[in-house]
Amino acid sequence: MGRAEQGVEKSLHRYQVIPRVLCFVLHEGKVLLLRGAPTKRIWPNKYNGLGGHVERGEDVYTAALREIHEESGLEVTNVRLRGVVTIDAGHSVGILLFIFLADAVTTEARPSEEGTLEWVPLSALATYDVVEDIRVVLPQALAAEEEGHIFYAHYLYDDADNLVIVWPAGAAAAHGRA
User: Fold this and answer.
1) Which residue among 38, 66, 108, 113 sits deepest, i.e. has the most Cβ atoms within 10 Å of its Cβ?
2) How far is residue 103's CA from residue 16's CA, in Å, rounded to a whole number?
3) Eight-state DSSP code of residue 6
4) Is 135 helix (H, G, I), strand (E, B) or coil?
5) If DSSP states are collapsed to H, E and C, what string results for the chain?
6) Residue 137: helix, strand or coil by DSSP?
7) Dihedral (C-alpha) 73, 75, 79, 85: value to the nearest 10 degrees?
């Protein structure tokens, strides 16, 4: 199949997505979180996983490895996909977010221009000022890990611009979500 047979030209009017990765690096009951630099355009001073855009020519796995290395300098193993989230930001272009877990070989991370890094005990996550969805998607990724599956979700925003997370029909009951 050639490029023309992919049908892109005929699909430019359809809903499109920007691919991104979100990575949670784990080590002995802790997760590495990035506290966004105060000068960041989005999520300044908020804790988040590592990640960013998938570059042209990259697959999502390679993008996850690159983002982890760029933002922490860490060497990781056992990188695995645990969630896929579509995000409707109210435009004709949305976000397709791939959520990964990875295991750190060492804990000696180096900061980047993105912000400072901190190993956070999973049991203390509730006490950190995290990006809004982290308290939901990180536990879902960890549960998916235990159950050996990938979770799926859809984000959208209500009229007051509040995040609404929708779980696929049937998936909530199957995976213990309300």
Assistant:
1) 66
2) 32
3) G
4) helix
5) CCHHHHCHHHHCCCCEEEEEEEEEEEECCEEEEEEECCCCCCCCCCEECEEEECCCCCCHHHHHHHHHHHHHCCCEEEEEEEEEEEECCCCCEEEEEEEEEEEECCCCCCCECCEEEEEEEHHHHHHCCECCCHHHHHHHHHHHHHHCCCEEEEEEECCCCCEEEECCCCHHHHCCCC
6) helix
7) -10
Mean pLDDT of 85-105: 95
pLDDT of res. 170: 63
Q: Which residues, 6 or more positions from 92, have their beta carbon under 8 angstroms from its beta carbon?
A: 15, 16
Q: pLDDT of 113-123, one tens digit each?
A: 888 999 999 99
Residue 45 corresponds to which tokens in the numbers above?
A: 């001073």
